[in-house]
Give the backbone structure.
Amino acid sequence: MAVYVPLTIEAQLECRMIMMSSYNLFSPANGRPLVGPTQDMVMGIYYLTQEKKKERNEGRLFSSIDEAICAHQHGLVSLNTRVQVNGVTKCTEHEKADENDPRPEYTTVGRILFLSAIDDGLIHSVEFKKKELLPTNRILIPNKALGKRDLIGIVEQIFQKKGLYYTVTLLDQLKQLGYHYATVSGLTISVDDMVVPRDKKAIIDRAHKRVEAIEEQAKKGVITESERYNSIVDVWSETTESITQDMVKEMRKQEQEDANPTKPRFNSVHLMAFSGARGNMDQVRQLAAMRGLMSRPQKKIRGQMGEIIETPVISNFREGLSILEYYISTHGGRKGLADTALKTADAGYLTRRLVDVAHHVVVSEEDCGTIKGIKVSALKVGDEVIESLAERIFGRVVLNDVVVDAVDEKTGEIHPHVIVRNGEMITREQAERIAEAGIESLRIRSVLTCESKTGICAKCYGIDLSRNALVRVGEAVGVIAAQSIGEPGTQLTLRTFHIGGAAARVLKQPRITVPFDGVVEQINCKVVRKKEGDKEIQVVITNNAVVRLVNEQTRQRQSWELPFGSRLHVASDAKVCKGDLIAEWDVYSIPVVAERTGRIRFQDMVEGKTLITERHKAAGGSIERRVIPFKGKFNPRLNIVNEKGKIISTYSLPVDAVVLVEDDEQIHGGDTIAKIPREEIRTKDVTGGLPRVEELFEARHPKNAAVISEIDGKVKIATVERNDKEGKVVSIDTVITIYNEKSGKEKTYTLPAGRHLLVYEGDRVESGEPLTDGVIDAHKYLEVRGPQHTQEFLLNEVQQVYRLQGVMVNDKH
Ligand SMILES: [Zn+2]
């Protein structure tokens, strides 16, 4: 690596005036503080501001800060004792009856010390108070034990309200204070601090029973192999989670116990992890609760699965691992090391390429005077907000006046109120007010639409996140952007190492229950009715079905998207009460649902060619019929025929589909006749994210690209035989036709059989929507939707990868 040695006076000046750490407190990538207390300093301050019940002289009343500190110095009250101090806390004599009440009128001696230590020069401008009551120039310090996040929040506030000089002074004071009290605390680590939860054995036994039941079901053929695997993995993730919660509870109990001079005051491991000083819950979990599921270094032993080893490590490091567990662990540990070694180089190379293409982008003028811009709204994946509108518009210049309805307090009239004027930059407060006012999208200036002849203009770029002010002319924003995107790549690859290969899965509830009383509306719901016992349920057979719950009185509304094959339990316009079940679906697979009643007729289902029958050892010898990758003149299908033998509906089966019916079996409308495993959706980790980012930036054609629709319209699906010159059938393809009634346009897509379709007969699709699984090819998207939508698409795709890992990078980069 090159080393910069400032030799000349000018170079030294540059170092002192521009590069010095005290001038670079905020990340240019996202505007968050880069400098803040860490490790021992955090631990010291957390210890200082923590409280302990029933210490000597608890609840004492002091007339001033000085008196309280004096009492502490004479040994009358300890650091963690609850006291009342005039002027700092509102002094009331009577205690509240409720033990769980935080009693904000109380504070501790430690917090008073913290306050007076950082208050130097800011005397009487710092307060413990609720946010709403705070005058704008005051600094809010929460009346609680202060962890790393709280401290960084304080640093941010001080910078915004008091400027750079105070911030730097404050940071120095925090350092002093933190180290001092870390020493005073005498905290140490002992094996007793790792509390193994008492109920661990019972929880594990329960999990073993559940796993046995799942194995039993698999043996009987009630569930498929992939469902078995997924359910077991879910059982163990849930178990790990609940043991961890128990462990945290027991560790916290030590903290909340009454003071006892013979016992340690706090649990050091808990204090360390919770303050943010070192380690996190994942690591403490491995020390004292259960190591949990490990990831499998070899990918895809069978199809899409094999990412997680289904046998968990039940022991923790305190108990010690058994030999088998040790081997499972080392497996994951090795993966961590190999990933770190290999992927850091990849991330570094990505940064280099990004700098190479963007380094000439420099802010060249104040304002290019363009009237163009982009429209932004919150970035959502499904129902989840990945990046809020407030985050996206902060620090950007608006193209139109932003107007909201404001209520006049005196007259009660509603009149328009301008929050931001055309051409002004949105501050953080304004961004929040815009979001609160319910504005969903906004037009802002963007570097993508800047009309500057060379480089870009300051107004189109907006805020310089490292200085919290409009960017200055001459700033090399291209390099900043490249490094903002490249830097987290290095960080992310290192994270897998810290967790040591322990796998984590996100569990999503596969059901919707009513959150408030109301009336249900079904939108786009094409359903098949099915009798189940004495109840009639509806099975959704469209892809974009939505249910909406409306309460006219309270004006509450909420809507949910339903996945294909969901089972709806309520009819349209039905009245429901809180807690009722609206719909449920299978998390592990996408069902193929029969729309009509009739007999099953197999077609192109040739054992060994398109289909294999497997006996699963793990599931105790259950038999499963599964479609395998095939070539040539096949298109495995399940047909439904009526009494006369006429085919009334047909279902092409993609590769990996598991057949649940027999040839010539009688079935009813709404029955599930096959299942497609839904696995790939949940295995999005870093190592998968970074290559996707590279793929997007390099505009490569992805290997498993999805076929996307070029027009809006309705879907028709058919199969076509393809012949060679002699008229022999070479292959049977699936043909998707998109037909638009208004324009009369029609587009057909011929796909090889076995592709997994995302649309169904009769679905409505929009142009640019994927018809099959796979990732979207940016080239194809550009052809269909044009440059502006493609820019937006690229931005959203990249943001998704980073946000899923909890990494914040501003949109402008
Ligand atoms: Zn511009």
